[in-house]
Specification:
The complex is a heterodimer of chains A (about 600) and B (about 80). By secondary structure, chain A is an alpha/beta fold. Chain A has 23 helices and 17 strands. Chain A has 3 domains: about 20-235, Rossmann fold (3-Layer(aba) Sandwich); about 240-385, HAD superfamily/HAD-like (Rossmann fold), CATH 3.40.50.1000; about 415-590, Aminopeptidase (3-Layer(aba) Sandwich), CATH 3.40.630. In chain A, strand 4 (about 140), helix 7 and strand 5 form a beta-alpha-beta unit. In chain A, helix 2 (about 45-60) crosses helix 11 (about 220-235), helix 6 (about 115-135) runs parallel beside helix 7 (about 165-180) and helix 20 packs across helix 21. The longest helix of chain A is centred in the N-terminal third of the chain and has 19 residues, at about 115-135. By secondary structure, chain B is mostly helical. Chain B has a single domain (about 5-80), classed as Non-ribosomal Peptide Synthetase Peptidyl Carrier Protein, Chain A (Orthogonal Bundle). The longest helix of chain B is centred in the N-terminal third of the chain and has 16 residues, at about 5-20. The two termini of chain B are about 15 Å apart. The mean pLDDT of chain B is about 90. Classes of the chains: A alpha/beta (about 600), B mainly alpha (about 80).
């Protein structure tokens, strides 16, 4: 696999050998944001430490790592005066090795062996609870390779006295624990061992001589996995895949070979493409947007989606379909502008190296995997890149394709109306306002992580933060859910007010760009002004903190009639005249 | 393979991994004599030598290497057997 030379933090991050990662350690990290990570292991973890920091250079983060002496997991966590708490990490990685588990397990008698996993789970639950009581951090537990120790052979699957049985139960229990504890994540080392094999994961001589339990070149795989988790929590994740068609989504050239001769389903190596499409469809169902960019006539390119009996992807699976003879760079820029997401959250898949390079040179931030020449390898190759790591999923994710398709319809209608007001009025917009509650907390946190362009201060909040704010009397919170006659956008706007004396400071104001240009800004301001008046507040103040992505809202407060005073944008609540908007609201849920 | 030839090839590996062109291995060189050659970088050096010569050292061989010369001799012996 080629290492992509430019804008490494946004391109595909390849697997790297340990020695190359270690060379990164001497490089300049000073321009990268710092993330504090503590590693607690029951065996030596220096190689993980170095590999993780080395990956940070590839992804544009400076991991500031506290690596405790090994075998100190309990002491560091249970003793709140330990170095761990003094360090105040944002992430705590807990690593308990297979070999240590085995020796603990073997020391149990036949009565204790069947409950080994339960006892270990209790232990992990205790660690997580203590960390969550005394630290505000994310916790990453590395799960444990499921090795059959050979004591029972395959019979290990038939008895809870076997180590294998207890390991699998433990790993399953960790998944359940992570389902219920929002800030707990699992680094799936067991799955890596399945993928690469225990022979590559483990070096007997290294282990015997040093107690380090993984092979030197297996640690980078673990480090990349952990780095993927951390990056996704920090908002660096993929939202869309743009697909080429001929020889990417099916075998052959639709324009030359015709619909009956392209390879999909039973024909030729069609199975490879069918399974690849099935996988893409699963991504779509979990909220990844699929778009098509093809050099073709549109009616020809669309034909298989509509008519071929073996196609898995159908027209309704594709949010934006672009087929023409213009160059791919322009088409991809067009798709990006319709989707309104950053290039760094887009993956482009194309079998043609020339097209890949052309797009890569023009749009450095976009991720373009070097697909294998053999299409039957596409799927396993893409799976191994772990491009679609995510820190959270919400119910709204799988609705997104439909929303973008509605967007395309609105764009058509907009052309037909001469005046903006007439157009907005025709949309029959309706907006529901709520304060934060346990139903909308996941979506609010997600929007906080994802909104880059319409985000005045770009403070990222997690679900825990949102819960805390919702309970704090010094804050007033507002969510805005918009729908119009074409469909429902869902929760797309958030304002957090921080009350102090006679003033409400706008701590956060962010909005999905899907609802731009329909008067939402005015509607939202009307809502908080109404609230401020009823709460007896005199001023609303706001601040714009520039980032590389939020220039869109540079003049936001000025345009809404705020005045610049003492370094803040300020609005007199009494003098404020409600903006004219074409959005109706029903429920004013904020207290 | 000549022992001096192997030691000079090892020197290149050591220079590359420890990122220090000034390293000059001799038969009697030990980890103490080379800056940066510690228990962690030792793992890298061993693995790099194993890859280069397509051999595997046993755990006890690794533990008992007294100096660079002994390692080079083991490499020659194992390469000949391979």
């Amino acid at each position: 696999m080629a290492i992509m030379p430019i804008f490494a933090q946004n391109a595909v991050i390849p697997y790297m050998e340990f020695s190359n990662l270690r060379k990164n350690l001497k490089k300049d990290f000073s321009n990268f944001p710092v993330i504090k990570v503590a590693i607690l292991g029951d065996t030596p973890t220096q190689l993980l430490h170095q590999a993780l920091r080395g990956y940070g250079y590839e992804t544009g983060f400076s991991f500031d790592i506290y690596d405790s002496e090994y075998d100190q997991i309990e002491r560091q966590i249970m003793d709140t005066s330990s170095e761990l708490y003094a360090f105040q990490p944002e992430y705590v990685i807990i690593f308990e090795a297979n070999q240590k588990q085995a020796s603990q397990f073997y020391s149990n008698d036949a009565n204790a062996k069947p409950v080994f996993a339960d006892v270990k789970l209790e232990h992990f639950t205790d660690l997580v609870n203590v960390l969550n009581t005394y630290l505000s951090c994310k916790i990453i537990i590395m799960n444990i390779p499921e090795i059959n120790d050979g004591v029972y052979g395959n019979y290990a699957n038939k008895t809870d006295l076997s180590f294998l049985y207890q390991l699998r139960k433990l790993n399953f229990g960790l998944m359940d624990l992570a389902r219920h504890i929002k800030n707990l994540f699992i680094a799936d080392v067991a799955a890596l061992v399945v993928e690469y094999g225990w022979q590559s994961a483990f070096s007997t001589s290294t282990y015997t001589n040093t107690g380090i339990v993984f092979d030197i070149d297996f640690w980078p795989l673990i480090a990349k996995n952990i780095s993927d988790i951390i990056l996704s929590i920090h908002g660096k994740f993929k939202k869309a895949v743009i697909l080429d068609l001929d020889n990417t989504l099916w075998g052959g050239i639709i324009g030359d070979d015709g619909i009956e001769n392209i390879q999909i389903g039973e024909l030729g190596i069609g199975r490879a493409y069918t399974e690849f499409q099935t996988w893409l469809k699963q991504l779509k169902e979990r909220g990844i947007i699929l778009a098509v960019c093809s050099k073709n006539f549109e009616h020809i390119a669309m034909e298989p989606f509509e008519k071929h009996p073996d196609m898995v992807l159908r027209p309704h699976d594709i949010a934006v379909f672009v087929a023409n003879w213009e160059n791919k760079v322009d088409n991809i820029k067009h798709i990006q502008s319709v989707l309104n997401i950053g290039f760094d959250s887009i993956v482009y898949l194309d079998d043609n190296p020339f097209e890949r390079n052309m797009v890569r040179e023009a749009i450095a931030e976009i991720s373009i995997p070097e697909l294998p020449e053999d299409p039957s390898e596409y799927l396993s190759f893409l799976r191994s890149l772990n491009l679609f790591e995510t820190a959270a999923i919400t119910i709204e994710d799988n609705e997104r394709t439909r929303q973008y398709q509605e967007q395309a319809k609105r764009a058509t209608l907009q052309k037909a109306y001469a005046s903006e007001a007439g157009f907005l009025e025709s949309l029959d917009m309706f907006c529901e306002i709520n304060s934060f509650d346990r139903f909308n907390t996941p979506r609010v946190a997600q929007l906080s992580q994802r909104s880059n362009q319409f985000n005045l201060r770009t403070i990222r909040y997690t679900e825990q933060d949102i819960e805390r704010i919702s309970k704090d009397k010094d804050y007033a919170t507002f969510t805005f859910s918009l729908e119009d006659k074409f469909g429902n956008y869902g929760l797309t706007g958030v304002i957090i007010l921080q009350k102090k004396n006679d003033t409400a400071f706008i701590d956060s104001w962010f909005m999905s760009c899907r609802v731009l240009k329909r008067g939402m800004e005015g509607f939202m301001l009307n809502a908080i002004a109404t609230y401020a008046r009823s709460a007896g507040l005199t001023y609303i103040t706001g601040e714009y903190i520039p980032t590389s992505k939020n220039e869109l809202v540079k003049n936001h407060y000025q345009e809404l009639g705020f005045r610049w005073e003492d370094g803040l944008w300020m609005l007199d609540v009494e003098k404020y005249k409600a903006k004219k908007v074409f959005i109706n609201n029903q429920d004013y849920g904020n207290k | 393979m000549e022992i001096n030839e192997v030691i000079s090839e090892m020197t290149k590996i050591w220079q590359n991994i420890l990122d220090d062109d000034a390293i000059e291995l001799k038969s009697e060189t030990t980890a103490k004599d080379v800056e940066g050659w510690d228990s962690l970088t030792n793992i890298q050096l061993i693995v790099a030598a194993e890859k280069k010569y397509k051999i595997r050292f046993s755990a006890s061989e690794i533990m008992n290497f007294a100096n660079v010369g002994e390692m080079a001799e083991t490499i020659i012996r194992k390469s000949a057997n391979a």
